[in-house]
Design a protein that fits this description.
This is Uromodulin-like. Helix content is about 10%, strand content about 30%. The chain is built from 3 helices and 17 strands.
Length: about 280
């Protein structure tokens, strides 16, 4: 089937329904006669086998036969209600019934492929995705647009509702981020985390020693900038991650990137999908 350029989805459909569309193939090598004939053949058989009502047009055609006039001296040259007349240069019993118009059998609305992933089009400075009409080679058309565009990043914004934040901030305090930005062409979100000791939390420990307004980690605990994030798969819990050690040099940023397939942001450290997130502190500041 590849020699006819059949779309991968159409190949899958043929494999799944091959038991019902044997008449669409030649018995010698089970290859398609022509792409157009095969697609039309499948539409007809699918309609009959699975009662699909997506086709419009006639499923039968009328052809008159034995229409010649009887020769003299027969009592009547034509059966009632027909009379002898010249049709296409010969004596025929007519008039012939008007032939019904023949229309093509095409699925209503057509059949579209899946949308491609979004990509940034530098010419129009917009995000663009495309899809293909799979029945054009069968003489059919599709309803709708083959190109979809967006001016903003296509990924869903982080959820910041009060309900979601109450789950993420259970037993902790929210720490503000600085210089948050979203690149308009790459859809990479970046925010600076404050490494001030008062904003850092004791990693994996719940208690702190506080002396004259300073925060010190208990023995065995590391003072670090920590975030909590929620995934779309679990909207009742959260994941906690230590981004960096506040007392050591290193990256002071957190980054999320847009997944143009799932249209959700992903955490750059582990590629997890992020529905909502917050920098946290386990002590009031």
């Amino acid at each position: 089937m590849e020699e006819f350029g059949v779309n991968g989805q159409l190949q899958k459909l043929v494999r799944l329904l091959v038991d019902h569309v044997q008449n669409c193939f030649t018995p010698e090598n089970v290859s398609l006669r022509t792409l157009k004939d095969a697609i039309v053949c499948m539409f007809i058989i699918l309609s009959e086998q699975f009662h699909i009502r997506n086709c419009s047009g006639n499923n039968s055609r009328y052809y008159p036969c034995n229409s010649a006039s009887c020769v003299y001296p027969a009592q009547r040259s034509c059966c009632i209600p027909y009379v002898s007349m010249v049709i296409n240069g010969t004596m025929q019993c007519g008039p012939f019934p008007k032939e019904a118009s023949v229309t093509s059998c095409c699925p209503i609305g057509g059949i579209w492929s899946e949308w491609s992933s979004y990509a940034y089009n530098t010419t129009i400075q917009m995000f663009e995705r495309t899809r293909k009409c799979l029945v054009t080679e069968a003489g059919c058309s599709c309803v709708g647009d083959s190109v979809s565009t967006m001016t903003a990043c296509p990924c869903k914004p982080f959820n910041s509702s009060a309900t979601i934040r109450s789950i993420i901030l259970q037993g902790v305090w929210n720490v503000p981020v600085k210089n948050a930005s979203l690149d308009p062409s790459t859809c990479i979100y970046e925010a600076e985390l404050d490494d001030d000791v008062k904003y850092c939390t004791s990693w994996k420990r719940e208690f702190y020693s506080i002396n004259f307004g300073d925060v010190f980690p208990l023995p065995g605990a590391g003072l670090s900038a920590t975030i909590r994030y929620m995934t779309p798969q679990d909207l009742t819990g959260f994941v906690e991650d230590r981004v960096f050690n506040c007392s050591q040099p290193g990256s002071k940023y957190i980054r999320m990137y847009c997944d143009f397939d799932s249209l959700t942001y992903r955490y750059y450290r582990n590629n997890a999908e992020v529905y909502a997130w917050s920098v946290i502190s386990k002590v009031a500041y």
